[in-house]
Amino acid sequence: MAYLVEEIGITPAQLHALMWVGRDKELSMGDLATRIGVTVKTVTGVVDRLEREGLASRGRLDTDRRVVMVFLTDAGRKRYRQIDKKFDERMVHLLSLMPVEDRESLLRIMKNLLNRMDEARKK
Fold first, then answer.
1. d(Cα 79, Cα 44) in Å, to the nearest integer?
2. Does 3 score more than 80 pLDDT?
3. How many other CB atoms are found less than 10 A from the CB of residue 29?
4. d(C-alpha 17, C-alpha 8), whole Å
């Protein structure tokens, strides 16, 4: 991820926020803070910077006006797709350095881990 941070010119926290919101389409400030492992106060600053750069915006839920949601702007979605593509290209390169049987084992383990994380999040 460090190569992306330098190349794109954003902080690691901004990169993580951009990737999480891009993946989920929108997140509450609290959920975003949890995902990137910071406090809500800290994520507020991260989102402030993303808003200043025109990459993210905030809104409120119609069902609960207390909840502040973060979503990507058109420019943010474009940047997310660019970053996601670069990340995928880098992962393909790194995986190509491994023997096939190691790569298959790693992918099996990662799939299991992701499935368990999704199950835990649903509880």
1. 20
2. no
3. 18
4. 14
Tokens of 68: 């502040």
The fold adopted by the segment(s) 2-98 is Arc Repressor Mutant, subunit A (1.10.10)
Query: How much is the pTM?
Result: 0.76
Secondary structure (H, E, C), the chain: CHHHHHHHCCCHHHHHHHHHHHHHCEEEHHHHHHHHCCCHHHHHHHHHHHHHCCCEEEEECCCCCCCEEEEECHHHHHHHHHHHHHHHHHHHHHHHCCCHHHHHHHHHHHHHHHHHHHHHHHC
17, 47 in Cβ contact below 8 A? yes
Pair 60, 68: CB distance under 8 Å: yes
Which residues 6+ apart lie within 8 Å of 8 measured at CB? 15, 79, 83
What is the mean predicted confidence (pLDDT) over 91-114? Answer: 92
Q: What pLDDT digit, counting tens, does each position of 16-66 carry?
A: 999 999 999 999 999 999 999 999 999 999 999 999 999 999 999 788 888
The mean pLDDT value for 78-96 works out to 90
